[in-house]
Design goal:
It is a single chain. The chain is an alpha+beta fold and about 280 residues long. The strands form 2 sheets. A 5-stranded antiparallel beta sheet has the order 2-1-5-4-3, with helices on both faces. Helix 1 packs antiparallel against helix 6 and helix 2 runs antiparallel to helix 3.
């Protein structure tokens, strides 16, 4: 009788371990798939916003506003920027800066008090004008919106010489809501190590620690991390949270456990029968 209990207990222990291995393997596979998908989503979100800005940078209305700077030219530039913001939800406020870093035009939604301001000391201006190349900044609080933003820029060249640039704050709210899910936590970290999106919060936020305190604690979560150009993406899922498992997988796990019980019971019957015939 004791042997039968030992066999049954061993069988259950083995199958419980097998169940845990299946759960862990599926979590890891699931997180690897999610990190690839999320990385693709984030990269496209920022690069599509920047590509849209680049396509507008050399339009006649923008170039003429920089070359001539008259009232009519600036009005046309403002209308162009406003249409851009109204058409593309990923773009926040857009500013047109001249080669000296002075903001000469903004879209109609932006605060007019930033016109005339000098932005030549900003990271995005220095990087864009030095390298004559589009730039994606770290996260910061936008001068026009007061909200956390990541800036994308597009230099405007004439005969290879910089005459100005377009600067837009990317709308983080839209990206944030695309990442929200009840089953895992997604953290987006900028090039400076600042976590500017964390889906356990109610909105995009700055002023968090450089990395959330539990980011490097492997005992709390299953984690997948990837680096895509200017951003680091971290996805975490709590151990024991099986809400995202499919019905098939739940059935499979339960079936394995039941098989262990049945095998143990059959083994007990065989031992009992042998004992009785002795």
């Amino acid at each position: 009788m004791l042997c039968s209990y030992i066999v049954l207990g061993t069988s259950l222990w083995f199958n419980n371990n097998k169940v845990n291995e299946i759960i862990l393997d599926e979590e890891k596979e699931f997180m690897e798939d999610m990190i690839k998908y999320t990385g693709h989503l984030v990269k496209n979100y920022f690069y599509n916003a920047q590509s849209t800005l680049i396509a507008t940078a050399n339009s006649p209305a923008i170039v003429e506003a920089l070359q001539q700077g008259g009232e009519d030219e600036l009005k046309k530039a403002t209308d162009t920027l406003t249409t851009l913001v109204d058409t593309y939800s990923s773009l926040g406020n857009i500013g047109l800066l001249n080669a000296q870093g002075i903001n000469i035009a903004v879209d109609a939604r932006a605060a007019n008090n930033i016109i005339g301001q000098d932005f030549s000391d900003r990271e995005y201006f220095i990087e864009t004008t030095t390298k004559l190349h589009p730039y994606i900044s770290g996260s910061y609080f936008g001068a026009a919106s007061g909200k956390p933003v990541v800036a994308v820029t597009a230099p405007i060249l004439e005969n290879g010489k910089l005459i100005g640039l377009l600067i837009a704050g990317v709308n983080l709210d839209n990206l944030f809501h695309q990442l929200i899910t009840p089953s895992w936590r997604t953290i987006i970290v900028d090039k400076n190590g600042e976590a500017f999106i964390d889906t356990i919060l109610n909105k995009p936020e700055l002023g968090m620690p450089k990395l959330p305190s539990d980011l490097n604690d492997p005992t709390l979560n299953i984690e997948s991390t990837t680096k895509i150009d200017d951003f680091k993406i971290v996805i975490r899922t709590n151990r024991g949270d099986e809400t995202y498992y499919s019905e098939y997988n739940n059935f499979q796990i339960i079936s394995i456990t039941l098989i262990g019980v049945i095998l143990g019971f059959v083994n007990w019957l065989v031992i009992a029968f042998i004992s009785k015939t002795k």
